[in-house]
């Protein structure tokens, strides 16, 4: 299976604007930062969550709690991804009970990653509510999951993939659409 670049969806400035808009929408919907926490799905979702938390702090002057989830052991395809999958740590250093949790991921596709993240968050306690923020929603849901905050909707075919690249891991901030060939 090979991939080649089909188009660039977003660059550094587009990503920054989308995350700033998402931060404003989160604050508007929740009436500020009271009882709010942000949790990113490891790997790129965690980086985007950190950026959203920084934007919220810049806007409100208040730092909200930030957590990071590693959903590896909660995946429904765990046995098919690797014989010994790499499990990283989950870092939630606050009580989730009665908080509004904003779950952050890079791309929303089938909804299975979000389902696994919801299962893991619930294992930490019972939040008041869980909201979902994604940089890109590419469609093709297999589960009844919808994002509350979306940076950009990108209709795709199943022969395409959306890659979010972040400077902290990939040395560039961009979102690209890749054509996948068998």
CATH top-level class: Alpha Beta
Main beta-sheet strand count, sense and barrel state: 5 strands, parallel
The percent of residues in helical segments reads 25-40%
Low-confidence stretches: none
Query: What percentage of amino acids are in beta strands?
Result: 25-35%
Overall pLDDT level: 92
Radius of gyration: 16 Å
* CATH level 3 topology: Rossmann fold
Structural class: alpha/beta
Order of adjacent strands in the largest pleated sheet: 3-2-4-5-6
Tally of individual domains: 1
Which word captures the global form?
globular
Q: Could you tell me how far the N terminus lies from the C terminus, measured between alpha carbons in angstroms?
A: 4 Å
CATH architecture: 3-Layer(aba) Sandwich
Total count of strands = 8
**N to C succession of SSEs:** EHEHEHEHEEEHE
The tally of helices reads 5
């Amino acid at each position: 299976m090979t991939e080649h670049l089909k188009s660039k969806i977003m660059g550094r400035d587009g990503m920054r604007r989308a995350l700033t808009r998402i931060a404003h929408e989160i604050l508007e919907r929740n009436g500020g930062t009271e009882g709010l926490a942000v949790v990113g799905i490891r790997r790129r979702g965690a980086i985007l969550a950190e950026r959203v938390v920084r934007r919220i702090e810049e806007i409100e002057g208040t730092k909200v709690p930030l957590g990071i989830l590693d959903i590896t052991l909660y995946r429904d395809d765990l046995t098919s991804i690797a014989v010994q999958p790499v499990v990283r740590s989950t870092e939630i250093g606050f009580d989730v009970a009665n908080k509004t949790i904003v779950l952050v991921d890079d791309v929303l596709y089938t909804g299975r990653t979000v389902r696994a993240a919801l299962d893991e968050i619930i294992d930490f306690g019972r939040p008041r509510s869980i909201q979902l923020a994604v940089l890109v929603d590419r469609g093709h849901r297999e589960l009844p999951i919808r994002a509350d905050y979306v940076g950009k909707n990108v209709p795709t075919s199943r022969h395409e993939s959306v890659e979010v690249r972040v400077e902290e891991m990939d040395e560039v901030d961009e979102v690209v659409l890749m054509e996948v060939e068998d």
